[in-house]
Amino acid sequence: MRPHDPDRVAILQEFKEGELQLSRNAALLNQGAPSPHIYTVLDGVLLRQVKLEDGSRQIVNFMFPGDLVGLQAAIDQNMEHSVEALTDATLCVFQRDKFSDLIARQPHFAYDVIWLAAKEESALESHLVALGKRNAHERVAYLAVYLVQRGIQTGLAQDNGEARLSIPITQRQIADMLGLSLVHTNRTMQALRQSNLLHWDSDTIIIEDMDAACDYAKFDGLNGAPRPYL
Reduced to 3 states, what is the DSSP secondary structure of residue 90? Predict the structure, then answer.
């Protein structure tokens, strides 16, 4: 995280309404409903998803510590997606109607919000390329690399010769992120395990050679620039 000086931290604390604890699978935002709050993730991982009329869903992205949650509703009024906790999570809560006052008082925070929004857009572009231009094996490898690198950036993953992220993602969630059937997802993950490129079970992703995994997934990896703190 990119640190703030004590005065800026004090201002954030003044506007902060409190902290919210979420247990795994708990809903934070509901598609089609307004939200009076904006959140930043302090700990844990959440997923953003769009539910379709036929009952299926498309997982759009995963949110890690430092990410801003709920900003879209500031423009759209009602949420066009839902957000739920993938793990136990802690979030910082800001009252939406006071957020503009925070920006007006400290305009540099506006740059931080734009920076975070740009990073979200970049992630969505990468996910779109994965869906449109990679085969099933490359998609799963890409998602594993993306999640582990985000975990490393935010202190949730270890990188001691091999990169390891403890995260409880089901094969159904992987399928809903990557546009694959559950059967195809299962077979693809088995093939990747047998190749020793990566090991992904129900609660852990292990990548022994990050460069090789990135090459296989046709993914350059994530920019390691420090993220702003809100």
Answer: strand
Q: Is the pLDDT of residue 142 over 90?
A: yes
For the stretch 153-164, pLDDT in tens is 999 998 888 999
Q: pTM here?
A: 0.89
In percent, the amount of the chain with pLDDT more than 90 equals 57
**Geometric angle at alpha carbon 93, from 88 and 96, rounded to 5°:** 135
Strands lying side by side in the sheet with 82-85: 27-29, 82-85, 46-51, 57-63
Residue from 80, 109, 149 nearest 11 by CA: 109
Helix (H) / strand (E) containing 15: helix 6-15
Tokens of 125: 């572009």
CA distance 33 to 78: 5
Query: Strands 57-63, 89-95: parallel, antiparallel or unpaired by DSSP?
Result: unpaired
Structure tokens at 133: 């231009």
What is the four-CA torsion angle of 71, 73, 169, 181, rounded to 10 degrees?
Answer: -130
**Distance between alpha carbon 157 and the CA centroid of its chain, in Å?**
14
Tell me, what's the pLDDT at 74? 57
Calpha distance 162→189 (Å, rounded): 19
Q: What token pair was written down for 63? A: 């949110």
SS3 126: helix
Whether the per-residue pLDDT at 111 is higher than 90: the answer is no
Which residues contact residue 135 at a Cβ distance below 8 angstroms, ignoring those fewer than 6 apart?
none
